[in-house]
Design goal:
The structure is a homotetramer of 361-residue chains. Chain A has 361 residues and is of the alpha+beta class. Chain A has ten helices and 18 strands. Chain A has one domain (4-358): 4-Layer Sandwich (Chorismate synthase, AroC fold), CATH 3.60.150.10. In chain A, α1 (41-47) crosses α4 (130-148). Chains in contact: A-B, A-C, A-D, B-C, B-D, C-D.
Chain lengths: 361, 361, 361, 361
């Protein structure tokens, strides 16, 4: 297991769906930051299930507790442990799952890797694992906002083939994103997405999509060539989120079809700094932020758990048919928005601290 | 700078284009592996410029020397230092570049990050930085081949909008890839790619593209949830390669448009193991290899250096026009193929050793 | 803050004396190990205050809870989070301390480092910080015992100038150590130590001492040259324990006065392996275990908190006199024994896993 | 192998005695530092053999070359690779050694760990391994001197039972240390040490000793609780040096015999900062520097290679007698002085950069 990320802002997450709790320990949070549970809870609330009839109806309160590292509402510079209790620790009705690995779940690979697996399936591949990330990310975001004014805004940019292409990267705000239950700031497209998700849900199926993210007000200079380039660290962070299958920054895959003469971003004077007139680079050159907005997109596959029956084989190789019981999330995208934002914040907080160690004292 | 990658197979690269040499130190290579320079040179030869009239004509011999870590053709388990001398250490005619950051190069960001930059431009963003990666990757590949029979094959799957879609993932071999100068195993498409590159070159422009890669014979169980999931580590490795803008594994961005009922990979018995009948997952579930081929794709932007004149501003903000002199590589894709393979090998060698520490002794 | 130790068996501790709780997250514990709180509690009980009238009388139950990483009494291979609640979270009567840094405490250095400090003083320099280490170490010890039969036994080998020199390194057991309250297996010396501690306690003073430790049944081959040599990692681990001032292995400082002809350990055949007839090396050569017992000694300074009045200056530089109120631990040595054992176990579990990754599969 | 040390100032060393070369790669050196080979060579010269008739007479020039990371005499912030060629790469007359592991050498443990070993014996346990450390340490020292005025001075404080106790910690300088061939600034004691070493040398034997070190002008605040406390990192660094058996800081083992009332260091006003009137703490409290000089001592065992014949057994367990041929170093202490200084510098440069990342920008 490798549950720690970051070099100076180091986050270790723990917990699976049916143990006592999930959470994180943050080692390296700067001292004297104002911090209470109230700074963390909002992003957890955006992640939790049961926010709308589009997502899984199980109500999980997910109240976070700060166990250590603060006093009188200020960080001490010492490790901050965060805990969210699991409500339901009963090991449920997973008998069938014990016999048959669910297609495209982690049941099989966890078994092959560890020789054991949580009775609820893939253990740490549970959606609840993200709680630790989101909590730690909320703190990272507070650091970035207070020290640099960094803004991180993610939204659902496509569900299936329904795409929202008209989002203003310069101005889109989290408030715009939250104005509808699919978390797409393009209102008319949001309606189409919602319709599609309902249709898929009725069909006992699931659907994938993409999340886009823009990060504004980064100073130039973040990112550590060559292996911890800003985009390399972002890519790792995004592909560590369950169900992700792709990452692209700036022009991305589309840019691979372009010519240098159109793709190059010419420099222009912007106030008292150099900027670029286009931003095909996505805010990064040579692995280092250039002061323009960092923009990227993440692909999510459709959720593996579906109500439709599936032909597969059990661990012994015998053919069988699986059918998921209960209601399930037909589309994780709306709830994954805060997870994407949190992972970005974890990466940037770390890169910011590393760069700070380099600056003239 | 963060020039080290890996936890147990740890590689540190060094060098920029105009210093005495470039190379790598590998810490953690298993002992008693047969190894001489002859195992490393072939991949370096595939990377070096001047292989065909399509790539930059500067001839760089790039002969590697093993400085340490072997004796009598066997590894000792101690650090293996690899060195390739730079031929041309003269600091050339970069006067103009000192005044004006080249659009979409790393000149500007290196200056902002370090307060200094190599006179040849972005220093470690030089193409020669990859030499250390390729050398270290060749050794990693030998480990993977000898211990597990792993095969890693990458190829140019698109140049601009010319795509090679008919490549057999089960059988494509490096020999097939090298049968033409664009390194595309689909011969007729290769011809179109070559034509396109020549046209772009004549226009003093550059063009992007994608590289696809398949990795066969991985055992199930590699990858370390949650932050060092196999796909997360691959994504980081790929996005650390200069000029990359995107990464997708398995169904990738296309998969985000699918429904769970089509995307889920049903299990089937394959010989004495479980396999899947489709492979939208790309060989990985929950961040852990499942025994199916790992397939992914990487997007490269067009090279930033072009002969066409470009309007931009200098460091002072004064408008100016840049025009690159000499001949330049219109398309880096063919030479990036061994770099992609090497970075994959670095990731897998590390994950293999970590998993080995977990297996019952 | 650097609260993580280890590369494959990675432990992160958290918590200070007046927050909600203290604990640890263990990332990398092998799967399928039998584990319940009952495996951890005994060492915590040996560490906690109030075990005898020699140690601080505050009763702290220190019951550990496993929050994650196990199911049905077996480890899952996922992070194991351990939590011990702090009973007393009231921020006490530390007003004077806020004005005046206590001599030889960490009040001053924490303030200088972080610009803030816990109102109870040095925050993570609190004795309660060790709880996370001891809990994580108990699990490490179980791994080492079950997989290798490793035995780790530490004891108080001196208090002030009272030394216990007659302890049989081949046979001394934890049971022998625990037969008296000073944790010295040499019974007659133990009595003298106890008398000395009482005398010091009556004088409202404190006293230092040393702890010795022997580790038996390590296989040859543990330790990672050059910077993670077995003795280097042990030295780091020991000097990370509060109040330690020295570490020596094998012949130690005494060995620096010897000649090679007496100090060299000749090889002899021992059963089916090579051993040595003497063990001045302390079980390690070139940073790697040689199969002989690993023996080392740790120096602890006298506790800084004393009842006697002390002349010093406050943060403003004004002269003042400090006098600690209440009863305090005159000698931490007996309670530090399980901490030493735990830190050894953390180091060895990590080195064992790393070496396992190297062994032929 | 674990040949990398440090988190932000990261040094990776490579090389054994009979390969092409030894050296180091430094990743994380701050940019814009003036640096040429001339800054590094003096400490290498102090380490190399053949400096006097007291040390091994083999002349090794050990000229260092900077391969990368600088331009026009300034660091670029990119990895600095340093190389020293090995003169004698012939695999010598080590036939006997192949059959019989030398007592208290690493021949046996390297064989057990790696299943192979360099024909010259313990490979990385070679004295030449230290060259990379010393070269990297010289650069670290330059950083510390230029940014903080830190002074690091080590000297031979004992050889066998001959001790130099009259060294002024406030003023001792490297010049004082180098005024005699044993590197002991106490001139009369130096003469006795020299006599003792000659006597031991004539007897074909070897002798151990201790090195003391003082570090002045550290600011308060360096050191990362809890596992990377300043003294923990120093202890690791020192015990990673070949032949070391012990480390103590401040009062050390002697302090374990003291009472709190004498050991506590009262605070006093010193100019515009708080200092302490005594320094039993050795400049560190709670793992963090307090602004007073950091003082420590390291124990070295006698060199294992001696001319006297030794009874032992070969790898098969057959009794045999070993007798080292040629002349060997009877006492490594004088040459180990720059190694100790270099390792201190590596630790401090890293801790300084980490603390810098925490300071308000």
């Amino acid at each position: 297991m490798s549950s720690t990320i970051g070099r100076l802002y180091r986050v270790t997450t723990f917990g699976e769906s049916h143990c006592r709790g999930v959470g994180a320990v943050i080692d390296g949070c700067p001292p004297k930051l104002q911090l209470t549970e109230g700074d963390i809870q909002p992003q957890l609330d955006r992640r939790r299930p049961g926010q709308s009839d589009l997502t899984t109806p199980r109500d999980e309160a997910d109240q976070v507790t700060i166990l250590s590292g603060t006093e009188n509402g200020l960080t001490l510079g010492t490790p901050i442990a965060l805990l969210v209790h699991n409500k339901d620790q009963k090991l449920g009705d997973y008998a069938e799952m014990q016999k048959t690995p669910r297609p495209s779940h982690a049941d099989y690979t966890y078994q092959m890797k560890y020789g054991i697996r949580a009775s609820s399936g893939g253990g740490r591949s549970s959606a609840r694992e993200a709680i630790g990330r989101v909590a730690a990310g909320a703190i990272a975001e507070k650091i970035l906002q207070s020290a640099y004014g960094v803004e991180i805004v993610a939204w659902v940019s496509s569900v299936g083939t329904v795409r929202a292409d008209n989002v203003n990267m310069q101005s889109v705000a989290r408030m715009d994103v939250d104005q509808n239950i699919v978390r797409c700031p393009d209102t008319s497209t949001a309606k189409s997405m919602e319709d599609l998700i309902r249709e898929v849900s009725d069909a006992k199926d699931s659907i994938g999509g993409t999340i886009s993210c823009v990060c504004r007000n980064l100073p130039a200079g973040w990112g550590e060539p060559v292996f911890d380039k800003l985009e390399a660290r972002l890519a790792q962070a995004m592909l560590s989120i369950p169900a992700t299958k792709g990452f692209e920054i700036g022009s991305g895959f589309q840019g691979s079809q372009m010519r240098g003469s159109e793709h190059n971003d010419p420099f222009v004077q912007k106030g008292n700094r150099l900027g670029t007139s286009t931003n095909y680079s996505g805010g990064v050159q040579g692995g280092i932020s250039n002061g323009e907005p960092v923009c990227f997109r993440v692909a999510f596959k459709p959720v593996a758990t579906i109500g439709l029956s599936q032909k597969t084989v059990d661990f012994e190789g015998n053919e069988t048919v699986l059918e998921a019981k209960g209601r399930h999330d037909p589309c994780v995208l709306p709830r994954a928005v805060p997870i994407v934002e949190s992972m970005v914040a974890l990466v940037f907080a770390d890169l910011a601290l590393i760069q700070k160690s380099r600056e003239a004292s």
